[in-house]
Specification:
Elements (H helix, E strand, L loop, with lengths): L3 H8 L9 E3 L7 E2 L5 E11 L11 H17 L4 E12 L5 H18 L2 E10 L4 E11 L14 E4 L5 H10 L8 H12 L5 H9 L4 E5 L4 H12 L1 E6 L14 H10 L6 E5 L1 H13 L5 E8 L4 E5 L2 E5 L8
Parallel strand pairs: 4-5, 9-12
Antiparallel strand pairs: 1-2, 3-6, 4-6, 7-10, 7-11, 8-10, 9-11, 12-13
Helix pairs in contact: 2-3, 2-6, 4-5
This protein binds adenosine-5'-diphosphate (ADP) and magnesium ion.
Length: 327
């Protein structure tokens, strides 16, 4: 990088969305004021080139977009409202131009504008081989309104806020160079799910607003993994009902093992998965309808000690957390 200072200037936001920012980029640290009605919520996630993404499977702008999206998804899973983010980037001495780095920031900025999140700082260092991008997000949630994984109880409904398996399906095709062979118009939504996933912030905030007991997690490592985390944190068993999952039509021509791979273990869909007390379910469905958001029942909670089952055509099997895919 020729002139780090100029480059940081060029990727600094020209205008901030949040009036609470007192000092943004440009000094030694950022300062924002806090409101006493809210708790602060913080999350950080790192994407490493060659491990979490490759330039073969991700356009440069999407790398930035996704790095912020996965962090916003963590805030969504707490029921929080995002406010600010910071970016630490380790840039390899070769292989990345300043223009490409700026493109990556454009991707972040696009999503940040949508959710009114302000870039308030970061760090820039050099590294030997591959790019490492770390994003920290800061948000807020009304005092004691946050949503945890540990609130599931026997009899609860298990839900998800959208389709799962799309990202894994896209990735598999990208890695096998098969994307030119699939129907491009139908592949677009799978590609979007993988490259520029939408964090389910509205859904998370809606769940945090209501009065029902909710437990919540985001689908970063696969439905099986996330359900297991809820089951373990809550000390219950969870049954995923395969027949009630929304299965994309494109999956139908593939063997059931493949469908399971994508939908249960694929991950990176960044939908929200959670549980809610059964008597609150109908009200919640209505609320989601009013907001034009999807809420789909995919199973239920039973007494137990952290086991996740899958039920298909009446037969149950235990499913494990595994099936953890990178890139
Ligand atoms: P310092 O030596 O005080 O850490 P830096 O030169 O690292 O200062 O950073 C100067 C300003 O630019 C700070 O406000 C910092 O938060 C911001 N900044 C540095 N690198 C980045 C980056 N990659 N993205 C966004 N902001 C950055
Ligand atoms: Mg610094």
């Amino acid at each position: 990088m020729n002139n780090e200072f100029d480059w940081i200037q060029s990727v600094s936001p020209k205008k901030l969305h949040q009036p609470s920012v007192k000092v943004g980029i440009g000094d030694d640290a950022a300062i924002y004021s806090v409101h006493s009605e809210f708790d602060q919520v913080v999350a950080v996630d790192t994407m490493v080139e060659g491990i979490h993404f490759t330039r073969k499977t991700m356009p440069i702008k999407s790398i930035g977009y996704k790095a912020l999206a996965v962090n916003l998804s963590d805030l969504a899973a707490m029921g929080a409202i995002p406010l600010y983010y910071l970016v630490s980037v380790a840039v390899p001495k070769q292989g990345w131009t300043q223009e490409e780095l700026s493109k990556m920031y454009e991707g972040m900025d696009q999503l940040a504008c949508k959710w009114q999140v302000d870039l308030i700082g970061g760090d820039t260092v050099s590294i030997r081989d591959t790019l490492v991008l770390t994003v920290t997000v800061i948000g807020k949630v009304k005092r004691d309104r946050h949503l945890l994984r540990s609130q599931a109880e026997e009899g609860d409904v298990l839900f998800v806020t959208g389709e799962v398996g799309l990202s894994a399906y896209a990735l598999e095709h990208l890695l096998n160079d098969e994307s030119p062979r699939v129907d491009q118009s139908s592949f677009a939504r799978f590609l979007k799910a993988h490259q520029e996933p939408e964090p389910q912030l509205e859904a998370g905030q809606l769940l945090a607003k209501g009065d029902g007991r909710v437990s919540l997690n985001d689908v970063s490592d696969g439905l099986a993994h996330e359900a297991k985390e809820i089951a373990e944190a809550s000390g219950v068993n969870i049954v995923i009902d395969w027949d009630s999952l929304l299965i994309p039509q494109e999956f139908n021509t593939h063997p059931i093992e493949k469908q399971e791979d994508w939908m249960l273990y694929g991950g990176e869909d960044f939908q929200l998965v959670g549980t809610v007390s059964a008597h609150y379910w109908n009200e919640l469905v209505l609320r989601f309808k009013e907001h034009h958001l999807l809420l789909h029942k995919i199973g239920r909670v039973e007494k137990g000690e952290g086991t996740v089952f899958m039920k298909r055509h009446g037969t149950r099997s235990i499913i494990e957390k595994s099936g953890y895919h990178h890139f």
